[in-house]
Amino acid sequence: MAKIAIAGTGYVGLISGACLADFGHSVICVDKNTEKINLLKKGKTPIFEPGLEDIIERTEKSGRLKFTSNLKTAIQESEVIFIAVGTPTTEDGNADLQAVESVAREIAKHINSYKVIVDKSTVPIGTARKVQSWIKDELKKQNRSQDFAIVSNPEFLREGSAIQDFTHPDRVVIGAESKQALSIMKEVYRALYINETPYIETDLETAETIKYAANAFLAVKISYINEIANLCEKVGANVQTVAKAMGRDPRIGAKFLHAGPGFGGSCLPKDTMALVNIAKKLGAPVKMVETAIDTNEKQKEKMLEKITRALDYKAKGKTICFLGLAFKPNTDDIRKSPAIKIIPELIQEGAQINACDPQAIANTKIELKDYEKQIKYFDDEYEAMKNADCIVLITEWNRYRTLDIKKVNKILRKTIFCDLRNVYSREVMENAGFTYIGVGT
Ligand code: NAD
Questions:
Q1: Which pLDDT band holds residue 195 (cuts at 50, 70, 90)?
Q2: Mind listing the pLDDT tens digit for each residue in 152-178?
Q3: Looking at residue 42, what is its pLDDT?
Q4: Number of alpha helices (DSSP H) and beta strands (DSSP E) in the chain
């Protein structure tokens, strides 16, 4: 079994580390955030991801999963080092590679034997070679030489179903130039290999391009159906029926064809921007992706317009109940969440917000701390609805899909229901006495 270090213990690093330990490997998860590591050492999980706590508990008990802030020891004790640090967007729309470079240089400082260094973070095409050159550069400064291999192994897990995605992936992509590294990577993923998971072995640049191309395609699909939804509103068609019929065609597929407030999260917004920037720089622009980003921004503005129109353009003094804050259900991640963009705009217009979410309140309190006077947080959605003038269902957690509509009708001051995820039927809601606003329905 392999000895593995994972640099970066966030959504990807922690889930990869826990699952790889569950496959039987010996894994050390490292993070520079000591608070996170201390929490993990106490048996607490810093993020919400269904099923994660159980795997961490199980693998820690077995001694196969460890946590540390000491990158040096983790490097020296491992033969495979995954880089799973964040690659956020810089002000000019590129992927920020500072954390990747810092880990690469640390690896070079402490490398003591042959290592396979794996780019798991989503990084611009060409980064694997940069990692290689940063390491060589650092070794040169120290007047040392040490054999190592670079691998690009992009991650496709989705928050909310990350454990299932990591342990049952549609494919494992491995970009490498060295046969030795490839065979070590096969050993790392042996549990999947014997399950006949499709393996795509390729070169570094192709592996890096696959990740961006896949994410951008999903973004295009979402923006496409949102544009069709806007058209449906003009012509009196129903986008849900349109999407359902489209999705029956296997060439199109039903997934990612749900009209709504636009894509958010830590991946699609940042990866589409990075791809657009790379492609522009190289003189091969991806216009469709540029348009998808533009449509996505406009979609959020459209949602704001929908809500204020529902309130007769008088948001001032109104109480708006937000069902959901996370960018999607089953996560506490609020990065680029439509709710986090729309709430401050409604507050600027004078509204008061009652917000609820099963997992994302703590993160939202930090992110929207400037608005603490205008936002009240509730664990119970019915409490949040009391005396509200309007409901905005923006994250389709299961508990918001199964509301007691009669009860909701009685609690609200005004029965306006903005269903930005098209969870409820217009007919049912209107018959129940609501003013119902959907997206493209
Ligand atoms: P994250 O922000 O949750 O976690 C990144 C972690 O890296 C943080 O805990 C941070 O403290 C740590 N870190 C930063 N610099 C470090 C350093 N020098 N040494 C050690 N630790 C350091 O990010 P994430 O969502 O896990 O994403 C990580 C990467 O994976 C990104 O490139 C992202 O695009 C990609 N990715 C994310 C997802 C997802 O759903 N979140 C899915 C696929 C790919």
A1: confident
A2: 999 999 999 999 999 999 999 999 999
A3: 94
A4: 19, 14
Around 48, how many Cα atoms within 13 Å sit in the side-chain half-sphere?
16
Residue from 267, 356, 390, 418 carrying the catalytic annotation:
267
Cβ of 55 below 6 Å from ligand 1:
no
- Using one digit for the tens of pLDDT, what is the confidence trace for 400-429? 999 999 999 999 999 999 999 999 999 999
Residue appearing with tokens 């402490």: 110
8 lines ligand 1 (CB under 6 A): yes
Nearest CA, atom 41, ligand 1:
11
112 CA → ligand 1 middle, Å: 25
Amino acid identity of 152? Answer: S
User: Does 338 sit in the ligand 1 pocket, CB within 6 Å?
Assistant: no
Distance 98 CA to ligand 1 centre (A): 12
Whether pLDDT at 430 is above 90: yes
Phi, psi of 201 (to 5 degrees): -95, 130
DSSP string, 219-251: HHHHHHHHHHHHHHHHHT--HHHHHHHHHTSTT
For the stretch 92-108, pLDDT in tens is 889 999 999 999 999 99
Nearest atom in ligand 1 to the alpha carbon of residue 103 is: 18
Q: How far apart are CA 108 and CA 115, in angstroms?
A: 10
Cβ of residue 10 lying under 6 Å from some atom of ligand 1: yes
Q: Whose CA is nearest to atom 30 of ligand 1?
A: 121
User: Measured between alpha carbons, how far is residue 349 from residues 167, 297, 356, 397 in Å?
Assistant: 46, 19, 20, 27
Residue 179 CB neighbours (<10 A): 9
Q: Residue 323: in which H helix or E strand, if any?
A: strand 319-323
267 catalytic residue (yes or no) = yes
